[in-house]
Amino acid sequence: MLNGQYPNLTIDLSYTLLGIWVVYLVGQRQWRCLPLLGLGYAVYSAVGAAVFGEPGWVFGHNPYATTSVYGHGPWTTFVFALPSLLGWVLAGLAGLGGARMALGCLRRARRQAPRFRAELLLVYGNIAVFVLAHTIFWAEGLFNSFGLTRVLAVTAPLFAVVALNGLDWAAALGRTPGGQRRIRAGLMGAAVVFLFTGARTAFRWQRDFGVAPDQQLANQATT
Hints:
This protein has helices spanning 10-28, 39-52, 57-60, 77-80, 82-86, 88-105, 108-111, 116-140, 156-171, 177-194, 205-209, 213-221. The protein is an all-alpha fold and 223 residues long.
């Protein structure tokens, strides 16, 4: 499942993200790979069909209404949550990486690079679609979206690739190879040190690794 926190959104998001792969594979003329995109859905449907006795159970037994019972929230909820996911240093590097890709789209030589289309669609495209879809579902009150920003955690590996692009761009400010290495080392060190600064988006031992008050109460009630 693409989103364990929102099982009702699995179909919607998977179709949207699969669309990106279809565009990429068609553009690369990898025709033989196209049928594989439906393999996961086929297996998922077959397992469910054995339980429900209905091949189309994914649609017929979907218990979640199109209109959310949880209401809706601001359009900015998921975008504003990204620094909490990445930390301010990585978020800044990811911003640089995104800006670099945007500028690259305007340059013909960059667009003609061998892996440009793959990076644009499969990294930046997947991030954009995932965040945008959750934003729309929450803002419009669709598919029982509860606005839980923790679902963004699945995009962290892709954001790491974007941040590396930003790191490489920032390092280019160095005039010598040694200067570029120092910039890279400084920014990577800052990303690690930030985790232990006690900032709200950094590690806080009691909050992140301790037992929450409600869990403590539940433990006491069961002993």
